[in-house]
Structure formats: C-alpha cells, structure tokens
Hints:
single chain, 2 domains, elongated
Amino acid sequence: MSRIPKTTKSKYNKDDKFRWVDSQWEKYMTKMKELEDKVNTLENENSKLRIAHCNLRDEFLDLGGDPEQLELFDPDDLGQLKIFESPDGGKTIYQRNAGSDERTKISD
C-alpha cells in the first residue's frame, strides 16, 4: 500500500485533512498549464505552416503550374493511399492500404 506523500501547507483548505488532495490538484493544474502552452505553440506553428503552404501553392501557380498536379489523391478513395512499413530498419518492406491491417511483403 502506498503512503501519503509529504506536502506543504494547503493553499486552498485550512483543514489538514485535504492537504494531499490539494497537492494533487496543484500538480494537475501545473500539468494542464504546460499542456495548454504546448497546444498554443502547436496551433501557432500550424498556422505558420498553413500560410507557407498557401504561399508555395500560389508561387507554383504563378509560375504556370497545373492546378491538377496539386491534388495528390482523391480524398474519397482511401484505397489509393499506401503505407510502407519496415520492422527491421529497411531490410524487409511491407505495404498496406490506409486503414487496413492486412499487409503484403514487397522486398527482402
């Protein structure tokens, strides 16, 4: 059985009975703040990448590129998306369709 960890004086409750609960709440709130900061960082990075993608797309089209070439696959047909896996660092390669667990060996 585990023991109750030593904690400092409770910030929220004056009763010592809740000292451990308060310490866990503090840990939780600290972790939530860290995760919230990480989400904000990733959202900002995502926005910058979307802007860069749009700029590259516009530049490609300005140079006379074919808009049809920008579409890599039909979003309604997941069967055309292939996933390549190698459990041994590239010696053996397996191929499978996206969303499927069934794979075929394509090289040794």
